[in-house]
Every structure is written in structure tokens, then in C-alpha cells.
Design brief:
single chain, Double Stranded RNA Binding Domain, four-stranded mixed sheet, 4 strands
Length: 111
């Protein structure tokens, strides 16, 4: 998984970088086919905004979160991203399993 962190009106400290990396491990633990993750952090007056673009095999997911605290924004972003990745994983696994089930004979048809 390639990770690209960038800050807009914000310097990304090693502590913030480590926090984001540790939280993104949860995503890669749930779904192995994550290719690329771009995270953009920005500050606008009192709002801390975190955006993530995740490139999966066959789909791109965009998530954003706005909070007053950067760490709270990162947590909210990871929760949203986790839900969307799990939803995609269920659809992805369902499509893979359907192809294999079509060609198997039913147990009632075997005589």
C-alpha cells in the first residue's frame, strides 16, 4: 500500500504521520487489495479537514471529515473509510463467489 500524506496550511509532524499510519493499518487489515492512499490535511480557521482518496482494485473511494480537532477528524475519517471499504469488500467477495457457484450442479439434480 502506497501512502501519500500532504498538508495544506499545515505542517505534518511525525506524531500526526505515525497516528495516520497506525489508523490506516485497520483498513489494510480488513481488505488486502488497497493499492494507493492519498491523505490531504488542511486547516481553515477553526476547522480541521482531512480528506482521503483510496484506490482499490476496481474502485476509488473518496472520504472527508471536518472536526475542530485534527485527531478527532482523523478518527472520524478512518471510521467512514472503514465502513466504505467493508461495504465494497462484501460486494467484491459476492461477485467473486457468484461466478463459482453458477457452474456447480445442485445437490438435488445429482441422481
Amino acid at each position: 500500500m502506497n501512502l501519500n500524506l500532504s498538508g495544506h496550511h499545515l505542517e505534518i509532524t511525525p506524531a500526526i504521520r505515525e497516528y495516520v499510519v497506525s489508523k490506516l493499518e485497520r483498513i489494510s487489515r480488513h481488505f488486502d487489495h488497497v493499492i494507493d492512499v492519498n491523505v490531504i490535511m488542511s486547516v481553515d480557521k477553526l476547522n480541521q479537514k482531512v480528506e482521503a482518496n483510496v484506490h482499490l482494485r476496481g474502485k476509488d473511494i473518496h472520504v472527508e471529515s471536518i472536526e475542530e480537532d485534527m485527531y478527532a477528524a482523523i478518527d472520524a475519517l478512518i471510521d467512514k473509510l472503514d465502513r466504505q471499504v467493508l461495504k465494497y469488500k462484501e460486494k467484491f467477495e459476492g461477485r467473486r463467489n457468484e461466478g463459482g457457484l453458477k457452474h456447480q450442479p445442485l445437490s438435488d439434480e445429482v441422481a
